[in-house]
Amino acid sequence: MIKIENNVIKNTYKFWNHCLFHPTDAIEDPWGKRIIDRFAEDKSMGMIRIYAMLEDIVYTDEDGNLLYDFRINDLRLDYLVEKGFDLLIAYASMPSCIAENNQALASVSKNKTRYKGKMFNTSRPKDYALWEEVCYQYTKHLIERYGIERVKNWRMQCFNEPDMPSFFMLDYKEAEYKEFRAKEYAKLYEYFEKGVRKASEEVVIGGPAIALASNVKYLEILLNSVKEKNLKMDFISIHTYGTGPLHINKDNAEFTTDSIINVYNTYKETIKKCGFEHLPIIIDEWGMSTHGYFNVEECPKFMDRETEVFSAYFTKLIHAFLANNITIDKLMICLSGQHEMITDFSGFRNFFTLNFIAKPIYNAYLMSSRLFTNFLKYDGADENTFVLPTTDENGKYSIMLTYCSKYFKEDIPEKQETLVLPDEVKGKKVTVYCIDKENTNPYRLYQRNGYGENMSEEEIKILRKEGKIKPIKEFTAQSTEINLKLTANCVYLIAAE
To answer: Is 257 in contact with 242 (CB distance < 8 Å)?
Structure first.
């Protein structure tokens, strides 16, 4: 029996409902718009992170003067703004016309190129003053088009994963130039800061969107540079991924939320040591595993991205941040790999399949968007049950929970659990939603029905319907007790209003 008391023990904000939408230029296309439309319709997402894709904007005339074409950028941003989203914009990649080396190209993709045949220019600028000017002109354009009152609620970030050669300075050997690359990124941030502040002091800026905790020295070098030069930094952005596919394949490593908490703590220690513990931390990429553009071809265990396992992981992760008293500003799932799919269920890290069938992880996001920000005290949960009980100022309740083992395996027994809500729930309408093997789980239904890769329109329609979350129970509460069947990696949402 799990008893929830009407006693608020923590007040927070919805840090968990945000994402990186990748590739950014999919927003130009029907399939990308369809996803954004679904986010807006469901109200499942808060802030969306995108790349500025400066390579689409900046060019030079015959005399080498910088010129700007914002039309494609505006198409993307207009669509997101129209749908009501706040933005985190990574100022990346390096425009070729100001790059030191036009051959320092990377795809960072399963394919030979990025989406639409593009490549990522990883070079440092040939002149940092040119980088400053690009950052100034881009920020100035955003303010002129969308207004400072809107833009000051966004976040602007210098580059992406500069500790990874595949994003920054690929042409310099990792072993020989690791610290040099970090110092060059600190310089990149310095001129980014100058350019943005020239446009407006009100724009919120930060970095470095660091990829690996093993490269935490990069963060230290950046923060020390910011301190020494008295630069503006409003937030620190980090990436926290779980178990990598190489460890899964080679060492039989398992998925665990402990990995993400440990990575966060490593970053936090350096942030504190450098004297920046007062700054908000944005986890602008997270995932159950690294390598979003890998799928079951590279790592068979990635099929868990299609199932109830990923939704349980996400729910437990929210609980882990709260239980460890970790305060973050934003938690943004990385949706890279969306454009790589050639079949529906193949283990990519995204919310929807090729035929726009919602996965359990998306519906877990939708459930969590319905949580409130006042967290209640509870007791009686065992070591495998993780509860997120919330209320609002109007006496409504929203409780999310998952039942899972440490490594999200089938090593815990099915059981019946009684959830006891506060007395105030009596007379309220109660709605119960569930993700498990039998509910809101298109891949499991695909398996049970024996569908193949080449599904008919009717089969796709059936799976889309399965992916649309709907109540498994609705009733007016006569008592405070609700009985739930808990199976491995199930996720519930109980709403009372």
So the answer is: yes
Last residue in a domain, options 373, 402, 423: 373
pTM: predicted TM-score of the whole model, two decimal places: 0.97
| Structure confidence at residue 165 (pLDDT) | 92
Range of 391's domain?
Answer: 376-496
Do residues 364 and 429 both lie within one domain? Answer: no
pLDDT at 110: 87
Which phi and psi (to 5°) does residue 47 adopt?
-85, 145
CA distance 472 to 64: 64
Low-confidence spans in the chain with pLDDT less than 70: none
pLDDT at 174: 77
In a domain, 3, yes or no: no
Residue 493: name the closest of 464, 466, 471 by CA: 471
| CATH code of the domain covering residue 487 | 2.60.40.1500
Distance, CA of 414 to CA of 391 (rounded, Å): 28
Give CA separation, 384 vs 389, 413, 464, in Å: 16, 10, 31
pLDDT at 300: 97
pLDDT at 178: 84
Residues 323, 442, single domain; the answer is no
Residue with tokens 């105030």: 424
